[in-house]
Structure formats: C-alpha cells, structure tokens
C-alpha cells in the first residue's frame, strides 16, 4: 500500500499510524518524517501522566500550560507528585535527545553537503485537506 502513495500522502498515512501507536501505548513522542521533497514534524506530549499542554500558535510559536491541582487526584498528593515528576522527566528527556541529535545531524549535514556539493531548496510541508484532524 505505501508504495502506491506519493510523498504527501505517504507521510500523512505514516503519521496516522504512528499517532495511533503513541495513543495505544500511552507515551509521549516528538517525530520527524521525511521522504524526497517532503517533511512532517509532529509531537504528542499528552500521555495520561502528563500535566503539560502545548498548543502550536503558528509555525514559530506555541503556548504552554502546566496544571496540576491536588483535587484532580482526590487529595492524593503522592499520585500528583508522580505525575509532575513524570511530566518533568518527559520534557527533559525529549529535549535533551532532540538537542543531542540535532547537533550531531547538523555536523553530518555539513559533511554530506560538502561531499556532494549539495544545494538545498525549502522542503515542502505536508498539505492537509481542510477540516483534517492531522
């Protein structure tokens, strides 16, 4: 099936499958997908333990809300503490992995570009149909 899809469709189909896996396993993720001429980036920081909400405002900015009321836990401060610790660990782990990988990949990009004499044009963003959830 994937062989019949072109760039935009292929990335949207892959994204839908990955998002289903993220939900099924109740995990957080930051994902970059690529096929020639197209790239798709998305993240999900909403597993059940997360107290963090991040909303994309535009391609340059976002809003963030961190909320945890002990009343949401029926007064169980230990459960609240576990979720807050897990939220902090989620953000820190993903941010550190992204930063480490980005620095390394930028070095690889420089070497590949130099070796191939590559020049780049802007990668096409995945186009979604109006009203699409993705």
Report on the architecture of this protein.
- With 134 residues, the chain is α+β, with helices and mostly antiparallel strands.
- It has helices at 7-25, 77-116, and strands at 29-35, 38-44, 52-58, 61-66, 124-125.
- It has one domain (2-125).
- It has two helices and five strands.
- The longest helix has 40 residues, at 77-116.
- The chain is elongated.
- The model has no long low-confidence stretch (mean pLDDT 87).
- DSSP, total strands: 5
| Proportion in helices | 40-55%
Side-by-side strand order of the widest sheet: 1-2-5
Q: What is the rounded distance between the termini?
A: 20 Å
Strand content: 15-25%
- Mean pLDDT, to the nearest integer, reads 87
The biggest sheet amounts to: 3 strands, mixed
| Count of individual helical segments | 2
The string of secondary-structure elements, in order, is HEEEEHE
C-alpha-based Rg, rounded? 19 Å
Question: Uncertain spans, ≥5 residues at pLDDT below 50?
Answer: none
The chain-level structural class is: alpha+beta
**How many separate domains make up the residues?**
1
Shape type: elongated
């Amino acid at each position: 099936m994937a062989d019949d899809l072109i760039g935009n469709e292929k990335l949207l189909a892959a994204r839908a499958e990955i998002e289903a896996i993220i939900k099924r396993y109740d995990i957080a993720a930051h994902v970059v997908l690529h096929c020639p001429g197209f790239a798709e980036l998305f993240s999900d920081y909403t597993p059940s333990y997360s107290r963090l909400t991040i909303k994309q405002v535009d391609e340059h900015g976002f809003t963030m809300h961190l909320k945890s009321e002990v009343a949401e836990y029926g007064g169980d401060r230990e459960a609240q503490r576990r979720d807050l610790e897990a939220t902090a660990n989620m953000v820190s782990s993903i941010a550190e992995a992204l930063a480490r990988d980005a620095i390394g990949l930028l070095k690889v990009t420089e070497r590949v570009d130099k070796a191939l004499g590559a020049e780049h044009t802007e990668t096409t963003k995945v186009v979604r149909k109006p009203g699409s959830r993705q």
